[in-house]
Design goal:
With 461 residues, the protein is an alpha/beta fold. It has helices at residues 15-18, 28-38, 79-91, 117-121, 222-234, 254-272, 278-283, 296-309, 337-340, 350-360, 401-413, 430-433, 438-454, and strands spanning 68-73, 96-101, 122-124, 134-138, 142-145, 150-152, 170-178, 183-190, 203-209, 238-242, 284-294, 320-326, 390-395, 418-423. A hairpin with a 4-residue loop joins strand 7 and strand 8 (183-190). The termini are far apart. GO terms for molecular function: hydrolase activity. It comes from Eleusine coracana subsp. coracana.
Amino acid sequence: MHPPHAVFRRSCAIGVRIAASIGVFLMTEMSDQFCRLSLPEGADRDHSLANPFSAGSSSLEPVALPPVLVVAAGRDLLRDRVLGYAERLKAIGKVVELADFVGEEHGRSLKQSSVNRGDSALSSMSGDTTAPHVVEDYRGVIQILSDGTILRSDPAVLRPPERFPDVTTVQWEDVVYAPARGLKLRVYRPRPAAAGGSESKKLPVIVYFHSGGFCLGAFDQPHFHSDCLRLSSELPAVVLSADYRLGPEHRLPAAIDDGAAAVSWLSGQAQLSPGAHSWLAESADFTRVFVAGESSGANMAHQVAVMHGSGQLDLTPLRVSGYVLLTPFFGGAERTATEAEPPAGGLFTPEMYDKLWRMSLPAGATRDHPAANPFGPESPDLEPVDLPPVLVVSAGRDILRDRVTCYAARLKEMGKPVELGVLEEAQHAFFSREPWGEAADELIVAVKRFVQKCSGGAESN
């Protein structure tokens, strides 16, 4: 039996080799080099060890092969060859089953997110149309099958790992905030000397939620880590970056509940002071707490602020001084102008937007659900809610630009203290896309000014 993703080669090129999928792991040049390095000297890719069906290979028809499971990967440049191997064996009467993982790459393991996912992914070559099939696919990274199985592949195909500058003036540590759910947050604080030379100096606290459309991301990924390092170092502040449950495995309001739990954990720490986590006891000013986030994380920050301001979430003895929304991921059944005709150069498309909502909202819900649309028909009236000051940041190339600016305008009409910042050349979720870019530099200045203003302090250069 040949192993999954076996390297079968021959001299002629086939479709996937020519049009190798975006994000593939194995490239044509790599495959060719492996063949040159491993085959007998002078042999080509039609050698019997490379091509099981070449002129020099033994016929497989008389061979008593046992049943075979062939595993193909949708982002593999050898995909057509692997499928062809299975088809040729079936054509000569061999017992063959094919497992086709559409979003996977050559040689990449799948992250198991369902105990039955292996069974569900198998599709017999008999042509059985009742086999589970993909009904929702987000860029090959998240797939929902017709039987409810959820498949996840490596999200690095969407955002390859990058090396960002290290910030040696900040220290960080992971802490469990929701043991029953296995959820952690990462606590950042400037080293005492970097915070002004006094170990007793108290700093504002930023509770930060990462982006990812409620379906992707983790608090410890490098780009989110860099965001929080910058915030902690340059504001300066104690930053708590919270992980939370993701859809479609955990649909909304799961993430919102986790966001509330993270801030409640901080409230519990304030009640324990001076017996709280040592860094918080030493450095956190619990009277200057800000709830912030980017994209879906900004939506969570809004939801937490509303829960607190309406009395649903008691955070005593914390004082929430403000909240910060960076290109918030809001929705609505009716398209805005920038959703209907996205700005030129934008990276976030209406199709991506729609799929993320379908994967994260409760089954059957529309984009007017309260978790998506803060002004939807079933959303709470925000006029009587005691909201703290808010800094809303919009990006000029974001399809959600109009929805974000409308959010700020609606709050302002209600008499809420609102600041709106617009970065015309920026993309949706620009802070995590380029944590050290020019737009991020401007953002840090704006957030620092907002935090100082809401804390009653003077601006500093």
